[in-house]
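ok so for the tutorial part 2 we go from a plain amino acid sequence to predicted structure tokens. step 1 is just haveing the sequence, like this:
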Amino acid sequence: MRKALVRFTAESAWIPHSLCGLLALTACIPLLWPQLLDSSLQGLVKPYAGPVILGAIIASAILLGISCVRYLLRMQNLRALWQLVAWGIQWGLVVLIFIQMAIEADVASPYEQEEVSQPIQQTATLHSPTEKLTGPSVLTIPIEPDSYSADTIEAAANLVKLEREHEELLAKFLSTSGRWGFASNDDTFYTKPGHVVLVPPATGGIPGTVHASFRSVTEGERIPAGFVVATPGSAFPELEDAANSVPDIALELSGKHYLLLAWRGTKHRETACKALNAAIAAIDARLQQLADTPTQETANMLCAGKRSIRGNKPELRVSEPNGQYGVYQAAVYANPGQAGTLLLIIRDIESGKSLRVFSFPAQHSDNPDELFRHDIPGTTESWMRDSAITPAATIFPQRAPFFAICLGKSHHYFGVSFEVQFVPTGADSSQAQLLLRRNYTVQAYESTPAE
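step 2 — the prediction. this is what the tokens look like for a chain of 451 residues:
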């Protein structure tokens, strides 16, 4: 009997090791899921769980030592090594099972959390605001010119259909859309903030960009100076003094609306034509849903865009639209879980002075894995505009989806911090919760001198 017990504990030690591991995992259950026990039993069981786990580990280690010594004394070194390896594998599996149990139980860390004074970003490192926004008011749209021809202009079937069959709906959509509703009516709109810029991928440096804007031209009015009228499906017009490039195009949509397209970049004709076609196709594709379902509800949905994304950590995205220096757009993705107001405070890093303060009603839900998009500035009537802290707060039209941070000399760069705060309904500003802080290098916007 004694010899059998020795053989069981020393030569077949993996069996008692497994039993010890199972005992330790069983003792973890009341610690991970205390709700499984009646409240009267929790006080009796939980104090013994830790000693049981520790005892199982110590007992297993003692058995390992006995087994290894036994084989070493018998000059069976490989078997002793195998006992050690097998023990490590068994308890490794026990640890992996425990980790999975802890994940399923969603146990909080037992260590005291260090208070974070600089949420999300704790350094003063400045970042270039190159994040690309995806909302319906974004003024920069990426394009892929290589997929298009350089011979004839794209058909723009959706735009033409809307213009011919639903002109009033198209006109209302363009006037209320954040992307199209705030472009300058100046003939040189491509030098002004607020128009859409379509950007091809960089290949050793960006070869150029397509600037686009819709223009309503009633009977008797002239086409903007410098633009050549063209129709979808026709050949690209040519410049008399520069056959290797294309002029600025006013794409006639068989009605009173024209899509103005201005290529700015390399004068290589094929590159320019492909980029213009890619731009037309990209704009046309974004209106396909309205062409297929021409209702005001569809137009409203396109103006609102996708309301939320998956995630549980607040995000701030800032972008400077291409070619529109000193003009910025931003979006906050957050879900405070309750009603209240979100604040975006832009401060000068050097002086700490507040340069812009935006406030807007917080969208929220009970889903912790949902983040709602908040455009800054918003284009809806319910948007709460910021106070006029600086002259930069009043230079652009109300509800325009872009803003300036500071007036001054163009390409004058300085550091700013973006702070996103949340104030619950009924609370005052002293109870604001800091959701995140990010730092950027930005540049001043120089307003157009009065003529």
